[in-house]
Amino acid sequence: MIAAPLAAPLLTVVGAGGVGKTTLAAALGVVSAEEGADTLVMTFDPSRRLKDALGVQDVSGDRVVRVALDAPGRLDVSLLDARATFDRLVARYAPNRAAAERIYQNRFYHQLAGHLAGVLEYMAVERLFEVAAAGQYARVVLDTPPTRQALDFLEAPDRIVGFLDSGALRLALRPWFTKDGHLRRGKVRRRVADLLDGIVGLNLLRDMAEFFQAFAPLYDGFRARARAVQRLLRDPKTRFLVVSAPGEARIPDTLFFARRLRQGGHHVAALAVNQVHPLVAGDAGARPAADGVRLLAWLAERDARGLAALRRLVTDGTPVADLPLMPTPPTGLPALAALGRELLQRLDAAPAPAPAPPWSRKARRRRG
């Protein structure tokens, strides 16, 4: 059975880039379907290897593709397409088709809107909201964007609401250009206009102004939707699996991320330390030529120290599971299922967290 911490209808896999989030999301999706739950795994463009493992080489856009899995529950996979999701939002909140087309045809929207900072992350949670509202799946597993700052994903709805309520937007909505595309006299001095033209280009500024003007009728709908997305991310049915790489150097970032999740009202299900080097048996030092074996032994000891330290520092009851480094990546559905089951078993068997030290704030609250 899916381990209790992860037994949620909405499971979001978060962490820094390169820690194996996408593979673990797919593995948990396979196990979920094997247990009889209709499951959707939403991910950004996975590697060719993972596509081959899932048997969905032709997945593209945000089209849902059925995985050929012999299981009681169905397993679907969908890529996260920020532009397609943005297009649907425009169609939903535009007052009419003409207003939507005005935005679709805008060059700023067409070329840049899907790549602006925060848009990619926000469209990921918007897509999660769409799927949750449709109610077609018993479980949805979301693989988050490969951003350098994983918190961008969580803060995206707040930034969208902040921007819609900001003075910068009100400034952008002013009529800076005439109908024939020229800067209005009195709005911008000639010298400033020449400077802007040299740095940014008036054509781009004109496209941006037109975009914000065309978008004005949609702001109320977008604001309400973004607030609904905020509530979904903080709902108890939405749980977060924090994935980290091994080693003591990763502990501060992992704990900081988990703490920020909780401070934001999100529900952390578990921490998973992925790709831990296994302990090396035998006396590697007795073989002078075994440099590779000695390196593996050193990495295993480093990872073991880091894992032990992390478990000592997690004092709030959150389970911490470790997953060993695999000799080869998963190359098929059975391998993904085995990886998912391994994670769940290790979560169930995770040692109880260490008690809070007597000087900690949590310990003082308990004594008080």
Description:
The chain is an alpha/beta fold. The chain has a single domain, classed as P-loop containing nucleotide triphosphate hydrolases (Rossmann fold), CATH 3.40.50.300. The protein has helices at 21-34, 48-54, 82-93, 97-104, 107-112, 119-134, 151-164, 167-172, 190-199, 202-215, 219-234, 251-263, 291-313, 333-348, 361-367; strands at residues 10-15, 39-43, 64-66, 75-79, 139-143, 238-244, 267-276, 320-324. The protein has an 8-stranded mixed β-sheet with strand order 3-4-2-5-1-6-7-8, with helices on both faces.
Could you name the key traits of this structure?
eight-stranded mixed beta sheet, alpha/beta, 368 residues, Rossmann fold
Radius of gyration: 24 Å
Would you identify the CATH H-level superfamily?
P-loop containing nucleotide triphosphate hydrolases
Percent of sequence in beta strands: 5-15%
Structural class: alpha/beta
Q: N- to C-terminal separation?
A: 39 Å
CATH topology: Rossmann fold
Secondary structure tally: strands: 8
Instruction: Please state the average pLDDT score.
Output: 79
Largest sheet at a glance? 8 strands, mixed
As for the number of domains, it is: 1
Question: What shape does the CA trace take?
Answer: globular
Q: What would you say the CATH architecture is?
A: 3-Layer(aba) Sandwich
Give helix and strand order, one letter per element, not per position.
Answer: EHEHEEHHHHEHHHHHEHEHEHH
